[in-house]
């Protein structure tokens, strides 16, 4: 791993704040980043204090005044170069993501590929920030709308996607003319430092103003400062519903904007008309990928009663084939949870499910012994449960899958929608009527609804986000770029008269 750290500019001790091209001594306490893979310390980081935060904010304000005047295609070309740099560093950055977060190596590479993809998307977008023209009711007048950058965008990201979600926001915000300040999870700070080093190379080569790409690594207090700072018109926050409610309330109190990507409690409906071979792959990957630590992880299976027993047995057999271990070994399917706190939550969820009457078909448990020294490896578990169980209504960030039966499609949709969260959903069916009903306004109430694929694996071309307690935000593709801009309606009078609205006469 030392060669990976060296390639990405990670030192034994690292500053926790940056203006994009200059590192700032954080001034706060020093923390260590430990890998959940083997429990070893990777490196240390000095967290940003209030003074460091203020320096980053002020540089961002200064940079915005200049950056917003760059033509959007020029900003896009710089983002294109960022994409090229990420291609160059894909292997070491992907390995660091895998090692510091604990996801599989292929998922680590995949996350960096998402960053590259969003750069490509943003480059094209830089020439397509379109407004509309409207016909005026007044002769000799023209109306149109245009979009302007907002200013500073604060980005609060979570540990489970330590680099990709930041890039979804940042690359779009940059081509829109905004500057960004990133507060990554303190559980994965080295991934953020590596990204900052990669970006710095590109920015210095292009003489980009210092402050366009800010970084402040800190604990919850830094996130609170971002949420309450009136100098930051938009705060994009990814994390738990509890965190999102606090951020949303703070930003709303100052009439700022928030883009919230919060918890998911995602379900797959398995129809009697499903292709069970496809369904089993989608369900198992959705449930155990990233050790159940995705916001789009499959947490509930709603199975038609006529095929319930057959599918249950097929699922249990598939779980017996799972290999749990070092995620950098591509022969393994499941890596560790992020830390021992996550393991405790996993254990509590299993106990709660049993107390409510759940029956485990695949028992969970914490693994120990050779290869599991970090104490963060757990067994993916499967339980039969009821939709009304309190534990089923909540998101547990771990590989626990709940099974339940249904009789009619209407019942299945009601069960799927009957949770506070509304991120991702899926139905496995070859029945066209079922598929269309699931996608109709009377179907899934989630921001993402799929047919014959699982709940995870969103592509950057579509807007990503959910409803209800998932927060309502949209990131990445489609027209998500509008979130990072302000709309302005313009009217131009090119006539020799000044007609007033509604025919009002005001002669002087």
TrEMBL record:
User: Per the UniProt record, which EC number(s) apply here?
Assistant: 1.2.1.3
Q: Which CDD domains match?
A: ALDH_F7_AASADH (cd07130)
* Claim: NAD is one of the keywords in the record: yes
**Location of the Aldehyde dehydrogenase domain:** 23-489
| Enzyme category, top tier | oxidoreductase
Identify the keywords attached in UniProt to this record, alphabetized: NAD, Oxidoreductase
Q: Which GO terms describe its molecular function?
A: aldehyde dehydrogenase (NAD+) activity
Active-site residues, as the UniProt record annotates them: 261
Q: How does it assemble?
A: Homotetramer.
Q: Which PANTHER family match?
A: ALPHA-AMINOADIPIC SEMIALDEHYDE DEHYDROGENASE
**Protein family according to the UniProt entry:** Belongs to the aldehyde dehydrogenase family.
Descriptive protein name: aldehyde dehydrogenase (NAD(+))
Native species: Flaviaesturariibacter aridisoli
